[in-house]
Design a protein that fits this description.
This is LacI family transcriptional regulator. By secondary structure, the chain is α/β, with parallel strands linked by helices. The chain has helices at residues 8-15, 19-26, 34-46, 53-60, 76-91, 105-117, 135-142, 166-179, 195-210, 230-241, 255-267, 301-317; strands at 65-70, 95-100, 122-125, 147-150, 161-164, 185-189, 220-222, 249-252, 277-281, 295-298, 327-330, 333-335. The chain folds into three domains: 8-51, no CATH class; 60-164 and 301-330, 3-Layer(aba) Sandwich (Rossmann fold); 166-299 and 334-340, Response regulator (Rossmann fold, 3-Layer(aba) Sandwich). Helix 5 (76-91) packs across helix 12 and helix 8 packs parallel to helix 9 (195-210).
Length: 343
């Protein structure tokens, strides 16, 4: 049997009222008596009546839905950011449609086309590692479609952007290793296309320069999929372990890269931090339960989701075209544990 949602006509027929009376009662109109309102609301609750969102969107010229594209929901950073997004959206009466690009440009384009065809009011996006061609985003933006970038941003499109202190977070992590006596520090990062990769590498290089050190290109390894595939982390670590002299520490620039590197080093029986220290970006709630507990750069992911959503809703609800855009920069924190300390 096909499910059919209850309608105003169903309520009107059951109660012997006109559809216009039921409609006004549901809107709490002053034209309808309190007794009739109570009768209508009670029956509507009994049959689980809900307003038709399509009809409402046609009336308001707004779907009250926003789209979100991230690389992977399972990534602890993005899952926390999504919680922040949903908290603000729910409070403001918006639904959230979440999609994953899995670091694929083709999937990102396909997902964006699908979401925009579903009449969402705006989009929050953290671009994939493979995204170089921006035409799919620029085409929507040029037509006035509200877009806000967060975490992995696009500089060439003028809109609101929410990021963290990528340079400072990487600088602080690398300086922690240097202050603990490590000097031959390697870096494993994501795709060179990403803004976060470039900024975090810059922070790493600046910290080394502070101690008059300059890393060789062989110490910087790129993982195009950001560690989503363990094989690329295994390859990066294997190449580093073959270097002579071997690195005495590794700095990783992303959640999956950090936990993946820990797994690979442990599988190779490399003692952490006895043989090689490990410090990296991670928002995992399990860092203190890992062996050893990890020293990590923690990002304010939930706050980032909140801020990005608030900025997007400002664009959506503005009565006039917005021409002045903000770049919000949120502060990171270094959580010090055993993995980056000299034994």
């Amino acid at each position: 049997m096909k499910f059919e949602a209850a309608t105003i006509k169903d309520i009107a027929k059951a109660l012997g009222l006109s559809t216009s009376t039921v409609s006004r009662a549901l809107r709490d109109s002053h034209e309808i008596s309190e007794e009739t309102k109570k009768l209508v609301l009670k029956y509507a609750a009994q049959i689980n009546y809900r307003p038709n969102p399509i009809a409402l969107s046609l009336k308001e010229k707004r779907s009250r839905s926003i789209g979100v594209i991230v690389t992977e929901i399972a990534n602890s950073f993005f899952s926390q950011a999504i919680n922040g997004i949903e908290s603000v959206a729910k409070e403001r009466g918006y639904n959230v449609i979440i999609s994953q690009s899995h670091e694929s440009f083709e999937k990102e384009v396909q997902t964006l086309n699908y979401l925009s065809s579903r009449s969402i009011d705006g989009l929050l996006i953290s671009v994939s590692a493979a995204t170089k061609d921006l035409e799919h985003l620029r085409a929507l933006h040029d037509r006035g479609f509200p877009i806000v970038f967060f975490d992995r941003i696009v500089e060439d499109i003028q809109t609101h952007k929410v990021v963290i202190e990528n340079f400072r977070g990487a600088y602080d992590a690398t300086m922690h290793l240097l202050q603990n006596g490590y000097r031959n520090i390697a870096c494993i990062t994501a795709s060179e296309n990403l803004s976060i990769s470039r900024e975090r590498i810059a922070g790493y290089v600046e910290a080394l320069a502070h101690k008059q050190l300059k890393p060789s290109k062989s110490l910087i390894k790129y993982c195009p999929n950001g560690g989503m595939e363990l094989a690329e982390v295994e390859q990066a670590v294997s190449q580093l372990l073959k270097l002579r002299p071997r690195p005495d520490a590794i700095f990783t620039t992303g959640d999956k890269l950090t936990t993946g590197c820990l797994r690979v080093l442990r599988a190779r029986n490399v003692s952490i931090p006895g043989d090689i220290a490990l410090v990296g970006f991670s928002n995992s709630d399990l860092i203190e339960l890992m062996n050893p507990p990890l020293t990590v750069v923690r990002q304010p992911a939930f706050e980032m989701g909140e801020v990005a959503t608030d900025l997007l809703l400002q664009l959506i609800e503005s009565k006039r075209p917005v021409k002045d855009f903000e770049r919000r920069i949120l502060t990171t924190s270094l959580i010090v544990n055993e993995s980056g300390n000299r034994k």
